Amino acid sequence: MEWLWYVLLIGGCSAIVVGVVASRIIAKKKGKPSCDCGCSGCSACAYCKQAKEKKENK
């Protein structure tokens, strides 16, 4: 019966990893930066600015 807990734990961890990866892929397809920041001096600031300009021009 102890093996059941290991299977459930591994399954739960795998589900979390798959969920995070899937959400990042979906965000990337929508054109969102990976940091989801407010662009206050982060390393993705140039990317965020380009994405905002594209969104405003549409």
List keywords for this structure.
single chain; 58 residues; mainly alpha; 2 helices
Overview of the molecule:
- This protein has 58 residues and is mainly α.
- It has one domain.
- 71% of the residues lie in helices and 0% in strands.
- It contains 2 helices and no strands.
- It has helices spanning 2-29, 45-57.
- The termini are far apart.
Oligomer: single chain
- Low-pLDDT runs of 5+ residues are none
Q: What is the rounded distance between the termini?
A: 58 Å
Arithmetic mean of pLDDT:
78
For the largest beta-sheet, the strand count, sense and barrel status come to: none
Percent helix = over 70%
Can you write the helix and strand succession as a string?
HH
Task: Give the total of beta strands.
Answer: 0
- Cα shape: rod-shaped
**Structural class from helices and strands?**
mainly alpha
Compute the number of helices: 2
Binned strand content: under 5%
Give the count of structural domains.
1
**Rounded to an integer, what's the Rg over CA atoms?**
18 Å
Short description:
The protein has 58 residues and is mainly alpha-helical. The chain has helices spanning 2-29, 45-57.
